[in-house]
Amino acid sequence: MIEAGGGAPGAEGRLDAELLRELGVGEAKATLLQFSSAFCAPCRAVRRVSSEVAGMVPGVQHVEVDAESHLDAVRALGIWRTPTLLVLDGEGRVAKRATGVPGKPQLIAALGEVL
Amino acid sequence: MELDPRGQRFAATLTSIVLIVVLATGWGWLALVQAVVFAITAADPRRGPYAYVYRALVRPRLGPPTETEPIPPVRFAQLVGFGFLAVASVGYLGDLPSLGVVFTAFGLLAAFLNAAFGLCLGCEAYLAIKRLSSAKSA
Questions:
Q1: What does the pLDDT look like over B115-132, one tens digit per residue?
Q2: What is the pLDDT of residues B64-118, one digit of tens each?
Q3: B10-67: pLDDT as tens digits
Q4: CA distance to partner chain B, nearest, from residue A59 (Å)
Q5: Which residues of B fall below an 8 Å CB-CB distance to A?
Q6: Where are the domains of chain A?
Q7: Collapsing DSSP states into helix, strand and coil, what is residue A91?
Q8: What are the beta bridge partners of residue A31?
Q9: Does the model's pTM come out above 0.80?
Q10: Interface predicted TM-score (ipTM) of this complex, two decimals
């Protein structure tokens, strides 16, 4: 399920540049930022969909983060479950947030609003 | 090495049946047997007693799986199940049947959700538990 970006502190504005650097999010027109954990069966499906979409749509990068080793970021972003996928725009704003496994068409549509 | 997800669903179904019998009869030794089954399966899901039953009786009729799943989530879920049933056995065998009923019911809920919907409750809660527990120590 893909929702509007709201809910996380700072969702209206840009995420802290330091935080993004720590998570390994580089410059891109759009980023699919995936939070995973070792005990998460659907994380693999999200990885597959996200990397396929990132390979298909120019300017999009997929970054997967182990939630457990970035608990500060997890708290700052209001993440409670894995998998959670954030769609960031080129300025580092959270445009959309998906928990569970998003469909490829929904993900492409969400990116369409960002790019 | 990965697992056949249908084997996990089958094991969760057997677990649900065992736990319903435990709840119906209040038989503490059966709760303890299920706790041991969880412990063995947590150590290695391929050597779990229910996995042998699945491979011997069910899998030959189904053919090879079209998809496999990673092992760590399964082990974690079995460990959660072990925790519930260990407490439940202590309850039943230590003359605290209400403790036994409550923790067997937790175990049944988790096993039933897994059997019916493939949903792993412990895996869903893992990050939330991690967030809360490390907030306390920080």
A1: 888 787 877 888 888 888
A2: 888 888 888 888 889 999 999 999 999 999 999 999 999 999 999 999 998 888 7
A3: 999 999 999 999 999 999 999 999 999 999 999 999 999 999 999 999 999 998 888 8
A4: 30
A5: 69-70, 72-73, 76-77, 120, 122-124, 126-128, 130-131, 134-135
A6: 2-114
A7: coil
A8: A61, A88
A9: no
A10: 0.74
Do A72 and A65 form a contact (C-beta atoms < 8 A)? Answer: no
- Yes or no: is domain A2-114 CATH 3.40.50.2000? no
Q: Looking at residues A22-51, what average pLDDT do you find?
A: 91
Query: Which residues on chain A are in Cβ contact (under 8 Å) with B76?
Result: 38-39
Given A40, A44, A71, which is nearest B131 (Cβ)? A71
Cβ proximity of B45 and B71 under 8 Å: yes
Nearest CB to A67 within list B76, B127, B135: B127
> Which tokens in the block code for residue A15?
């995420």
- Diameter of chain B by CA atoms? 52
CA atoms of B16 and A53, how far apart (whole Å)? 39
Q: Give me the DSSP letters along B63-124.
A: -S-S--B-HHHHHHHHHHHHHHHHHHHHHHHTT-HHHHHHHHHHHHHHHHHHHHH---HHHH
Tokens of B80: 């959660």
- Is the preceding peptide bond at A83 cis, omega within 30 degrees of 0? yes
Total domain count for chain B? Answer: 1
CA angle, residues A15, A19, A20, in degrees to nearest 5:
75
Q: Which residue range forms the structural domain that includes residue B36?
A: 5-137
